Amino acid sequence: MERNVCLIAGGMSEWGVREASLRDMFQEAGKACFEDNPAVTNKDVDGLIVASAYTERCSFQTHLAPLVAEYLGIKPKSICARVELLCASGSSGIILAYGLIKAGIADVVMVAGGEKLYMPQKWEVFYSELASVDHDWDGAQGLGLPPPAFAMVAKQHMKLYGTTEEQLALVSVKNRRNGLNNPRGHFRQPIDLQTAMTARPIVPPLKLYDCCPVTDGCAAVILACEEKAKDLTDRPLVYIRGTGQATLNNMSANMPNWTTWEALKVAAQKAYADAGVKPGDIDVAQTHDCFTISEIIEYEDLGFCEKGEGGLFIQEGKSDFGGQVPVNTDGGLLSCGHPFGGTGIRQAIEIMKQLQGRAVRQVEGARIGLTHNLSGFIAAHTVIIYGRDKD
Amino acid sequence: MIGVPILEGKYAATMDLYPQQSKEFNRIYPFYEHLKQGRFTTTKCRACGRKSFPPRVVCPNCLSEDLEWVDLPTRGKVLVFTEEVTGVPLGFESPLIHALVDLQGEMKLFVRIVNCQAGELKEGDEVKLAVFPVAPVPQEGRGGVVMQERVYYAFEPVK
Contact at 8 Å (CB) between B60 and B43? Predict the structure, then answer.
């Protein structure tokens, strides 16, 4: 029989430019996760999924899950493995843990993810990024991770729909303001519109504050079957209601559409159908704002607004507190930073806290939350829907 | 002492920007042989007719292995482009110019533009295939180490 699955704890290491190794930060995140809910201990966890994309390139370390288990005093017996989908590695771990628990293969699973990206010499992270797109075909063209690709997306979206640089900047102003809500995030200083608009260009039209930073950090959550969850937390239960993960292409030449992310629509439709909800039912969302233009397109392709109206959606405050659906309430990638494997887990922590009514800045009465990641060359999309109610 | 002394004089494929192109390491090596002749090619399935890019050894549509090499256009038009200023990866100069090129309706290729100054490129400009040599690979074999010559491609403005 299929079981219900709940999120019962979550915590993060400090995120930023860290004077720490990958294993240091996995320990910090694991400890923070257990401290978040003292009713669950490392002895209660029967499975561990670790999400990390650059562990092999930046830490010369494979077989990472048993290492993390050893450091956190976890003795897994149902699952102990690493999962990788670059920027969506963390959310992929959550989907897999959900499936295992739902099927009765595991009961209580920690999903821990994160990256150590800063190296003794800075060139190495940009160079390693050439491995994250199709290395032989896009990497060799000098396409590392995102800025150039997203600059092209922004240019085309502006041309097609009249989206403006000011609308892009408004996303970073909102998310930097929301970033004050995450004490573990990379950036904790607000910026104003003028600062965002006059910042130095990275890849035009994207300027400094349109881009998320390179960040070190880890995060961890614990998922449990409903029966165990009832014993392991006094807080309101937060259920996973639906999931979707879709890809339609990997190499840039095969991208079906640059300004409408078809794979996001596929993943979202699957997650909405699983959960039995509509875009209008989402009370709070954490979407993948690796660049400001991404968040604008995500409003559209998640169905929060009509196609082409993402720019207006931010301009009219519809994604801010008090608006139609507050987005990136903990600051998103633009404030918290983006240690790839950690990001989906950070998003899950914020949604869990929002639905339990204990977020730093609370969306009043939030009962349904959504997380979204894109990964690679906008090549895969992952959507998870959480609810205070099981259906 | 700088770097890792035990790696001095060693070639680390894990740090190589460019793909392995020799027939010992890549079944689509004809693509690179064709590049050396100034041809831009890919594979087409003889069973179902599907043309794929990048080249394959199995058709992603019908899974046939009966594929043939066909030529792609070597000229196209710039649809949209951007000049990357910051965070340019090692091995490339700033500004690094990327363009989405319409390859005569065959496909939209996101490609690097070389032999072009910053501020020079315009939307609608015609560009053509530019093949250039990249660092050879010292490849170990029975007869000792052989330097495998390599090339790669970008596009450049038609002047």
Answer: no
